[in-house]
């Protein structure tokens, strides 16, 4: 996996690409933090800027709150069958809508497994493009987000969700 680092409205964003697709996104408070996480995930060098420019543009637009379609641009590497089912279901949550962890658990055929779903959501390898920020607590709270709750609020507000 090759990496690119970019400054977005959300802060430093690391993008890992392989075979012409995005396979990792990190959201770091600093450039070094975003890079460190990509290296921990197996990145082995910088990507060629021209080759990945359309993918970087997609991430930049998504981080800025623009509607994007990630179809065909994301390649999930790893994860358990359960995690992959959760991540696949994330992609079906419409922009500007939220669902609860409990509802997501029901959708993947594991009612009562909201905590396990929360852990799978937290392990999402491509946040923003697989919109884990759209999953919230059943009690109306925001739940968690790897980039921090202020970032989750920013993403939801950009989609027109009142938080």
Structural commentary:
The chain is of the alpha+beta class and 163 residues long. The protein has two domains: 2-63; 81-158, Winged helix-like DNA-binding domain superfamily/Winged helix DNA-binding domain (Arc Repressor Mutant, subunit A, Orthogonal Bundle). Helix content is 37%, strand content 17%. It has helices at 31-40, 49-63, 81-90, 101-107, 114-122, 149-158, and strands at 2-8, 11-18, 21-28, 99-100, 135-136. The strands form two sheets. It has a three-stranded antiparallel β-sheet, sandwiched between helices. Helix 4 (101-107) packs across helix 5. The chain is globular, with a radius of gyration of 15 Å. The chain starts with a strand and ends in a 5-residue tail after the last helix. The mean pLDDT is 93.
Task: Describe the global form.
Answer: globular
Helical proportion? 25-40%
**CATH topology (fold) name of the largest domain:** Arc Repressor Mutant, subunit A
- Supply Rg: 15 Å
CATH architecture of the largest domain: Orthogonal Bundle
- SSE arrangement, N to C: EEEHHHEHHEH
> Which strand order spans the largest sheet, edge to edge or round the barrel?
1-2-3
Structural class: alpha+beta
Query: Which residues form runs of ≥5 with pLDDT under 50?
Result: none
Cα separation of the termini = 36 Å
- Please give the CATH class of the largest domain: Mainly Alpha
The CATH superfamily title of the largest domain: Winged helix-like DNA-binding domain superfamily/Winged helix DNA-binding domain
Mean pLDDT: 93
Percent of residues in β-strands: 15-25%
